[in-house]
Amino acid sequence: MAITQRMSARPAAGRVVSRPALDPPRSRRSVRGAASRGVAGLVFVLAALFPLAWMAIAGFKAKTEVVRTPFQFFPEVWLWENYAQILDDPAFVRTMLVTFGGAVLFATLSLTVNSMGAYVFARLEFAFKRTLWALVITTMFIPGMAILLTSFIVVTKLRMLDTLAVLVLPAAASAAHVFFLRQFYLGIPLALEEAALIDGASRWQIYRYIFLPMSKPVFVVVGMTSFLAFWNSYVWPIMTITSPDLYQVQQYLATFRSERSTELGLLMAGSTLAALPVIILFLFFQRYIIGGIRISGLK
């Protein structure tokens, strides 16, 4: 009798057993949660883009409209002359080109120096390695402003003032970048390096033909960080550069504001054009930046 009851409790062959539907309240809560996250993300994006959008639109305003009261987001008359006038200024164009060239050179040198240092600390064994690594890491906790005066004294004695070298060389080696690249190199399988050593490859060949080709995502992150740091630098160029031929973009905008403080529309147009190279580079390398951050997690 018990066997018959258990057999009768089983569903017949070919019969579709209906499953209970999702709990309506739970389904509604998940939809509301997704909608809330979407709204919060949209608010965050709008808050982040609002200053940039206002700066770009303010470049089309007249002198008195930028700081007009009450606040007006869009201009009454769109003045394209502001952007045309700032682009016709040879000093601004020269400053943009000099800053861009210096930023590319700085990023290239930073990648070269820091990647070599990261490979040495990740793969080579030598005396006092742990002590030297601790000293390198310690420099990450020293604020740049704390060594600003001593750095200025050093470059002055080396007669590097008013040269492109004073902008590129002092900050090329970065403990943070060495640490970031080292973490990535530690994740590369050791078997690849051992196989190359068995085939007779030198350490330089291993670094050049194995590690460098695999470092594209992290190189984009380090390169963009170095480029952005050089592009936005203000205090160091103000201290070390006095020649207008080597003015950096932030230095030029600060000088423009102090000398032509009433032409705010022209200043906003110049600031917008100064921000464009960084935005374009970020959009172009966005996929590599996200990939580099994802695969270079700390171990």
Structure summarized in a few sentences:
The chain is mainly alpha-helical. The protein folds into two domains: 35-79, no CATH class; 81-295, MetI-like (MetI-like fold, Orthogonal Bundle), CATH 1.10.3720.10. Helix content is 69%, strand content 0%.
Tell me what you see in this structure.
The protein has 299 residues and is an all-alpha fold. The protein folds into two domains: 35-79, no CATH class; 81-295, MetI-like fold, CATH 1.10.3720. It has 15 helices and no strands. The protein has helices at 2-9, 24-58, 81-87, 90-123, 129-138, 148-157, 165-168, 175-186, 190-198, 203-214, 216-231, 235-240, 249-259, 264-284, 286-295. Helix 3 packs across helix 14 (264-284), helix 4 (90-123) crosses helix 8 (175-186) and helix 13 (249-259) packs antiparallel against helix 14 (264-284). The longest helix has 35 residues, at 24-58. The protein is globular, with a radius of gyration of 29 Å. Residues 1-9 have low confidence and may be disordered.
